[in-house]
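Loading example: each entry is read as two labelled lines plus one structure line.
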Amino acid sequence: MSGFALGLSGIGLMFVLLFLRQPVWLSLAIVGILGNIIHNSLNTAQYVAGTVFFDTASNYNLSVIPLFVLMGEVASGSRMSAELFSAARVIVSGLRGGLAVASLAASGAFGAICGSSVATAASMTRIAMPEMRKAGYDDGYASGSIAAGGSLGILIPPSIILVIYGSIAEQSVAKLFAASMFPGIVLMLIYIAVALWIARRSNMVPPEASASLLDRILALRHAWQFALLFVVTIGGIYTGIFSPNEAASVGAFGAIVLGFLRRSLNVAGVVKAVQASVIVSCALFMIVLGATLFSQFIVQTRLPDTLLALAQGADLSPALVMGLIILIYVVMGCFLEGIGMVLITVPVFLPVVVGYGFDPILFGVLVAVLVELGLITPPVGMNLFIIRAQVPDMPMIQLYRGILPFLIAPIILIVLIFAFPQLTLWLPAVLY
Amino acid sequence: MTPQPRSRIATLLLWIASAALVIMMLVVVGDVLLRAVFNTPMQGAYDLVSIMLLVMVAFGIGPVMVKRAEILIDLIDGMVGPKAVRMLGAIASVLSFVVILFISWSMISPAQDAWRWGGYSLELGVPQWALWVLAFVGLAGVLWGAVLQVIGYARGQEGQE
């Protein structure tokens, strides 16, 4: 069997294992190990497997993952997201659909200190959903706006997905964080525009009372701790004061100190946040471990090179190749979990994309947007399940209907990224 | 509240991994503060972070397995009955054990190399073999976690704890 055929068979086997409910890390590791044994020898497979655990687990650059996860867990556990929502709802009060806008804005802001969309969607569902129900919002509209907002955590820095992409694509995490800032803000604005448009054109949302200008200004003070954390961590990275690893540590430590100062966190809360961070981070490290074995095998088969040669031989234009790759991501995103999807696809697609002259930083941001889209795309959008788990009396079909109009936003953003590459590439070029 | 693993060993492993994460954070914060205030970086910060990350990952994966907190795609759950889902879970836990065993076995040779030919961490001069020992101790916990998973499925315990 040729390397190309073996590589494709390996990918096929991996999808079968994933479909058969085998953990993502395990599916990747089995294909990586078996593939290496078949393609090379048992000794080669042993050599790769013997060093991958130690190298991955002691990789200084990957320490940023648990530290940012910890910052997000502490921020979630210390009611920071609730205060952001309270501030946002006063600031945008009077708008038809204001609570949905507040939820989106608070999610975007919370995403700026928490790299996890799951944490953002979970905490925002707890906070915003009861308020929207109380105000008479349609359940589908309310849950759709929360699911969409929750996905912003992946794109707005710090983003765990971008850290993982940076490690496998060998790209600077600081540059990726800079590149994703404006697309993240633009996406939040498009989501808000969609929410307002639906609110104006339907009877899903009742009119709301408006707050005074003074109340709006006073509401801003509730967001000070968020602003402080954001300026210290992401501002620190952008200005070159901190490395991503240092920013994550200072951010996590700062979130704990702020939690104690505001009396919204105690020792038990810190222990809970630390233990949850360990579990989440180690589950991610297991996938990184499996993906390293898998990508070693894929590289050995020369599958990416062959795909690139095939595409160039068929005289496919760069736009068509990128369009096909985006289509594959969209389809996969309907069924696969985000981080696994990145780890499976990037080793295969990145060489092809770079071979066609696309910037790897731009591709990283694009991948993050596509993962975001996957998080809210039925039937397997993770954020939809998170909301459903917390609002069990809402039919899933209503959630699916509610999210549909919001799916247009990431698609518009993808078009904008290609129409105006500077949206992504300007800030890293200025800063680094 | 984060559910605690049922096994005492897994609980101990989780506490060790958690302590490593906290130390990692404090070391970096200490390094940043020392640099900012005294213009003197903390000696060995890089090594300590790498070692603590190794401890966190090596000791933290066991509890992940015991809690069945691995990320998976449960698309098939709606198509097959609970018995089939449990069987697939049992297969996953056996396969996990086999793969971890293979990885552990493969690590023996590079660990022996680290013992024979030395090698030390860059800043603190910690012998590489000592770090491999740490990794093996953690992996023993991972194997234990995989065994508990298999036992859990055999006893018919459902899903995550």
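Chain B touches chain A through 58 residues (CB under 8 Å).
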